[in-house]
């Protein structure tokens, strides 16, 4: 438009959307007219952002803060989105961003108190070990209720984010989706996700594509996301020519029917104008919109870097650049809206307030304020080591389980199920009626159905999870003649509960991040991500390392996410055997997760129910079976579902009756138990006991010690596993327990 705004719409396939964007821009001749009070308000906000950065730069010299300087119009953009979004029906915003400008957004937009930020620079507070190990100040999240200038009230959440910049994208999307599900916001107009990207990161990181690709998928849609790219034209020390192959950092956005606005970050009113069109488009069409804020980065990647080492010509220009605040103040002065003296008084008043906040921080007695939790978490507590082995009542009466089995295994009248599946469901129902031979898929289905009958929703996503990679689940059925869809599990749901199952796109990182985010917002829901094979979880290692394993200790955010990772050496090759149990056990410490390798259908039933029945939440990692799904040996009687809960270890029922004759005790976990059992029977050995360790972390030392006391005559205790010595559970077992033996 020959001034400070450009837009891309030609890629939008739907004519109505394309023409709407063009008419909004061209009808206003590429500008929006603001009255004097609105202009003074925008100058105030830009001045607050500007002076905050200046204050930190001069009072905390060379300390990292990842300054917003050069991109202060980000605050204008967010202000406009909140103000206009609230007028268009939005009551809650979920924000994700990396470190660039994060402290500024926390204080100016989410109204985190300045002294709460300054105390983290001062470092004069006492660390509370119950809060976990913490994180740097520009990674933390925040939740707040805001009263806007219009008087409207909105809630805003900023998700915590590690230095892996864009991985929070999927987490934010599902935090918004979970809130939409909770309040019945089917169209997504009430809960709005906002993502702030860096130009190099958005173009370079694959998780951005994965997240954008989920924008219109049923299980993952949020009614559109507002994307703001803070485009400072350099990534750490990398020039755009080395950072991407596309013309614009936002070109990946063209895969969606989404408008892309390029706007000069020095033109505050132009930024406000495109923010208006973006939020109006999102609320009207339920689609994403992208704002490419062309700006600059005043300092290096952080304030300790010297950017002139790598971009000398660029930073010669930046050094001479008039600040965004001064550009806008000069423009308003020329228009007679404010005087230069007014602008200086405004800045001075802001500095005085910052001074007062710093004095409070220096006095001591404050500690960094952690983000408040959603109301849905108020009934939960932080689980400690001693809580893990407290029995949880997960067993149910036989009559109730049989009633549930009748409902989930009998098809509605007129529904024509595939003949092979008819036999499948008949066999399931018979096993529960008879009280014996209950297989893994049935145990899992009973867990889901019983939770739903108690009012808990179940969310399960991953590749091919509706049927299950090994066809053991069959939780979404297709009429053999009409193609009509039916989910048997929904038949038992108590009012409000639902079985929310979705075959995901071919993504691990994005989808696991999505499900992790759901677990942060919906603690009463059993949330599961299943790998097609457990090996494939390594495609989401950042989500596992930076969020699942460490999110609680860093950010005090609990998660009950369950990972089902098919694991076992059945001759299917190196990419279809190991879920890398050793990686999870290496990350397991201080009660941050549960790692289990289960052997019976009753155990998966109790483990899944325990996830929801506890009054705290921890991630649960299950090495789930493959060949055992149909093994006649890997079945449970109904009494195992009704008479007891989860068992951290399973003692050898055969050997324990002849304990005095046992000379060798084999400890194992998972599928290898059945191999050992078969070999013992083949060899007719009576002197060998086999104990299954079902829960590997936290290690069940007390239960195991008690079981071993029965075998006082044993000469050997041997750990047995399928994996090589440097993999699997061996190192963990040795270091945790067996290393203490002579």
> Strand share of the residues?
5-15%
The profile of the biggest β sheet is:
8 strands, mixed
What level of helicity do the residues show? Answer: 25-40%
**Which regions contain 5 or more consecutive residues with pLDDT less than 50?**
none
Alpha-carbon distance between the two ends: 80 Å
Based on helices, strands and strand pairing, what is the structural class? alpha/beta
Largest beta sheet: what is the strand line-up? 1-7-8-6-5-2-4-3
Shape: elongated
Question: How many separate helices?
Answer: 26
What integer is the average pLDDT? 94
Global Rg: 29 Å
Number of strands: 21
Throw out a few tags for this protein.
39% helix, alpha/beta, seven-stranded mixed beta sheet, 742 residues, 26 helices
Describe the model.
The protein is α/β, with parallel strands linked by helices. Helix 2 (36-59) crosses helix 13 (340-362), helix 6 crosses helix 17 (509-521) and helix 17 (509-521) runs parallel beside helix 18 (541-548). The model has no long low-confidence stretch (mean pLDDT 94).
């Amino acid at each position: 438009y020959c001034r400070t705004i450009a837009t891309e719409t030609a890629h939008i396939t739907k004519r109505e959307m394309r023409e709407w964007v063009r008419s909004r821009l061209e009808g206003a001749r590429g500008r929006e007219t603001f009255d004097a009070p609105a202009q003074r308000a925008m100058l105030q906000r830009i001045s607050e952002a500007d002076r905050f950065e200046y204050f930190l730069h001069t009072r905390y010299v060379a300390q990292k803060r990842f300054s917003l300087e050069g991109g202060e119009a980000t605050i204008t953009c967010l202000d406009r989105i909140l103000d206009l979004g609230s007028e268009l029906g939005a009551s809650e915003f979920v924000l994700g961003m990396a470190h660039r400008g994060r402290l500024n957004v926390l204080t100016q937009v989410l109204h985190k108190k300045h002294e709460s930020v300054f105390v983290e620079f001062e470092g004069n507070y006492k660390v509370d070990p119950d809060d976990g190990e913490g994180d740097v100040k520009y990674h933390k999240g925040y939740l707040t209720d805001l009263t806007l200038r219009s008087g409207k009230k909105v809630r805003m959440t900023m998700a915590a984010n590690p230095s892996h910049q864009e991985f929070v994208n999927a987490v934010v999307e599902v935090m918004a989706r979970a809130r939409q599900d909770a309040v019945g916001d089917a169209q997504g107009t009430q809960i709005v996700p906002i993502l702030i990207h860096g130009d190099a990161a958005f173009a370079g990181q694959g998780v951005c594509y994965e997240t954008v690709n989920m924008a219109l998928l049923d299980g993952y849609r949020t009614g559109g996301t507002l994307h703001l790219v803070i485009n400072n034209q350099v990534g750490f020390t990398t020039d755009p020519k080395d950072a991407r192959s596309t013309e614009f950092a936002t070109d990946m956005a063209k895969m969606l029917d989404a408008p892309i606005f390029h706007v000069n970050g020095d033109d505050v009113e132009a930024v406000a104008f495109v923010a208006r069109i973006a939020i109006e488009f999102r609320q009207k069409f339920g689609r994403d919109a992208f704002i490419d804020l062309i700006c600059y980065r005043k300092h290096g990647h952080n304030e300790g870097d010297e950017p002139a080492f790598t971009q000398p010509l660029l930073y010669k220009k930046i050094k001479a650049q008039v600040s965004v605040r001064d550009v806008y103040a000069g423009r308003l002065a020329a228009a007679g809206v404010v005087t230069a003296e007014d602008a200086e008084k405004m800045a001075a008043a802001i500095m005085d307030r910052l001074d007062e906040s710093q004095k409070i921080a220096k006095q001591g007695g404050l500690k960094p304020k952690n983000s408040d939790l959603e109301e849905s978490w108020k009934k939960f507590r932080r689980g400690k080591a001693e809580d893990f082995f407290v029995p949880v009542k997960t067993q149910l009466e036989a009559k109730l389980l049989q009633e549930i089995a009748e409902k989930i295994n009998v098809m509605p009248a007129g529904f024509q199920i595939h003949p092979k599946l008819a036999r499948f469901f008949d066999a399931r129902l018979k096993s529960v009626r008879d009280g014996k031979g209950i297989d893994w898929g049935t145990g899992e289905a009973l867990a889901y159905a019983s939770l739903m009958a108690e009012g808990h929703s179940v969310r399960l996503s991953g590749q091919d999870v509706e049927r299950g990679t090994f066809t053991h689940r069959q939780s979404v059925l297709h009429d053999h003649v009409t193609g009509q869809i039916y989910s048997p599990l929904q038949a038992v749901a108590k009012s409000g509960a639902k079985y929310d199952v979705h075959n995901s796109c071919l993504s691990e990182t994005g989808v696991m991040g999505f499900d992790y985010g759901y677990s942060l917002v919906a603690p009463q829901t059993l949330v599961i991500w299943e790998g097609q094979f457990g090996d494939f979880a390594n495609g989401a290692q950042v989500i596992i390392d930076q969020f699942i394993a460490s999110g609680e200790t860093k950010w005090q955010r609990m998660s009950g996410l369950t990972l089902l990772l098919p694991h076992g050496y059945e001759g299917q090759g190196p990419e279809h055997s190991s879920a890398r149990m050793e990686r999870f056990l290496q990350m397991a410490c201080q009660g941050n997760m549960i790692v289990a390798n289960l052997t019976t259908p009753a155990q998966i039933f109790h483990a899944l129910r325990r996830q929801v029945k506890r009054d705290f939440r921890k991630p649960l990692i299950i090495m789930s079976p493959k060949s055992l799904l149909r093994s006649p040996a890997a079945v449970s009687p109904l009494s195992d579902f009704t008479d007891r809960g989860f068992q951290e270890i399973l003692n050898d029922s055969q050997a324990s009756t002849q304990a005095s004759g046992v000379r060798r005790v084999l400890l194992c976990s998972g599928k290898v138990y059945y191999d050992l059992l078969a070999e013992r029977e083949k060899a007719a050995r009576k002197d060998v006991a086999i104990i299954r360790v079902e829960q590997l972390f936290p290690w069940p030392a007390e239960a195991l010690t008690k079981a071993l006391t029965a075998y006082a005559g044993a000469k050997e205790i041997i750990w047995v596993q399928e994996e090589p010595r440097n993999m699997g559970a061996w190192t963990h077992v040795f270091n945790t327990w067996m290393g203490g033996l002579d």
